[in-house]
């Protein structure tokens, strides 16, 4: 999950070069969801796909928050912001999770809260390119909104009655979120003027990579970890992924490493390290 998800920001950026954001994201997760559903039915039998009504409702909520909200907004944002910057902004997820836990009555250690404050400072620095006009501000704000929705989905997935089989939960979440992405894409009119012949080969290759590795492998691993490992441990991906994404964006897409990205990114990653390391000791 560390390595693969760090590369998905690059993949998304390549996909949206010639493909519409929500339709491509929806197609990605519907395809991955169908493949995982078939795999679960084949390896564990159709009974493994059965869920209760409460579990289905929970899966719908989490799938929409994670896939449609969290991922969908990031895909849309990457039509306007570099992949490395998007990944660094998404690194704020553990901070939002801490704030959500605090609002639910939890009392995190002062060191954790200090890490949140440090991370907010880093986010302020990362947002400065949008305020100065170096990148589009709406793209930066969309990534921040996506990170908040992803945090909500992660938080509630550990509180709601989810399917006992994490692979079943992952399959349904991808299908639900993917269908939601297709609906939003059609509502936005992304199908108008869409010429399949004009889509680049590298966008198709990137989409295939996202289906297999970004969704089937990494998202399924994330869904499994959310049910089997402490959230503080699962959240450690947040300080590895952005580093991978920034390096790949600079090497492959020649994305510029400006001082706000380098400085703000370093602050955010340091804050996440403080938060996660403190939480793992609790």
What is this structure's SSE topology?
Layout (H helix, E strand, L loop, with lengths): L1 H14 L5 H24 L8 H25 L5 H8 L2 H11 L6 H23 L4 H21 L8 H22 L13 H28 L2 H4 L6 H12 L6 H22 L2
Helix pairs in contact: 1-4, 1-9, 1-11, 2-3, 2-8, 2-9, 3-7, 3-8, 4-7, 4-11, 4-12, 5-6, 5-7, 6-7, 6-12, 8-9
Task: Indicate the proportion of strand residues.
Answer: under 5%
| Number of E-state strands | 0
Q: Uncertain spans, ≥5 residues at pLDDT below 50?
A: none
Structural class: mainly alpha
Overall shape: globular
Largest sheet: none
Question: Counting H and I runs of at least 4 residues, what is the number of helices?
Answer: 12
Q: What share of the residues lie within helices?
A: over 70%
Radius of gyration from the alpha-carbon trace, in angstroms: 18 Å
Averaged pLDDT = 87
Q: What are the secondary-structure elements, in order, as H or E?
A: HHHHHHHHHHHH
State the end-to-end distance: 24 Å
Report what the structure shows.
- The chain is mainly α and 282 residues long.
- 76% of the residues lie in helices and 0% in strands.
- Helix 2 runs antiparallel to helix 8, helix 6 packs antiparallel against helix 7 and helix 6 (110-132) packs antiparallel against helix 12 (259-280).
- It is globular and about 50 Å long.
- It starts with a helix and ends with a helix.
Brief sketch in words of this structure:
This protein has 282 residues and is mostly helical.
Summary keywords:
282 residues, mainly alpha
